[in-house]
Amino acid sequence: MTAIEDRERIARAALTRVIEPGDESGGRWLSRFGAVGLMDRLTAVEVDEATLPGASQRRLASYRARAAAADPQRDLEGIAVAGGRFVCPGDGEWPTQLDDLGGARPIGLWVRGGAHLRTWAVRSVAVVGARACTPYGAHVAGLLGSGLAERGWVVVSGAAFGIDGAAHRGVLSAGGATVAVLACGVDVAYPPGHAELIRRIGEQGLVVGELPPGNHPTRSRFILRNRVIAALTRGTVVVEAEYRSGALATARRAVELGRHVMGVPGPVTSGLSAGVHELLRGEGALVTDADEVVELVGGMGELAPERWGVDRPRDVLDPVSACVLEALPARGEVDAARLARDTGTPTDETLGRLYELHALGFVERHGGSWRLTRRAHEGSNARRGGS
Question: Class of 313-385 per CATH?
Fold first, then answer.
């Protein structure tokens, strides 16, 4: 790392204490002046209206107070002690898909864990949903997490209660790769009830955040965190969500960014699935398992297996034989001539089909008449009893 790179990294680390995540005005100033230049302006002895074009005096004063209190060297040393690092745009580990956020792009990312963030992000999927989820939702999220992990995909979520936690646990149970994007410092366990889960993610996966060490979350930071989840991944799966929820906000941002958006359907009577169903009526694609998710976000040839019902003996019949078998009454016997009339098939061909069906065990002969066997009844009950 050169001296200029050192200054850039230090300046960006400082700016994570000055500019809130997702602040597009801050992003424009950063793009215009550079990280070092922006910090120089914020810490200058004298300032005027040209220091931050468009910023009010009150806002400028707030930024300057934060800049004066920032200690980036301490933060960088602290994250290193915690086994982490600060990743900036331009680093080899920086996931360039985050650049799609434009002015709302993170200033940098504080990262804890041994994996390479950019490499993992290339093949990643977000799984998000309600905090107060149902047992069904938690079960599905866990299956998606483990299924995606088994197929070599990284699962990204927010480490929250409910769907997020279930997805992370599903990945961990399969020995897979998962990333938790936090709305606080990566050294802060939030929610506290997930302290052990976040610790395990840090050991087996990655814990990522925009905020410097020690920072705690706020309501707005949770919403803004979701844009990182949407941009970082190839697609977002929503398992359960009400009409107004952070998970749907993630999905909407993913749509804006041109990412795949998917939803898992639930009971139409469940308010927790109402938002997902609305998503499916619009931009979302319906998915039910990891195979279907991978078919959408994966490469060419990564197709979900074809779905078939239970194999039945009748499945092997050609159309004409199936037609003759269908014409036989459920009870009683019928002769070949009547079957020929009913099916519009020549008598000789009808007889040939009947003998074929006899060999397969579907019909039995009684003198000059034919009737269905027990096997034929068993093979048709499910079809005739359904709708």
Answer: mainly alpha
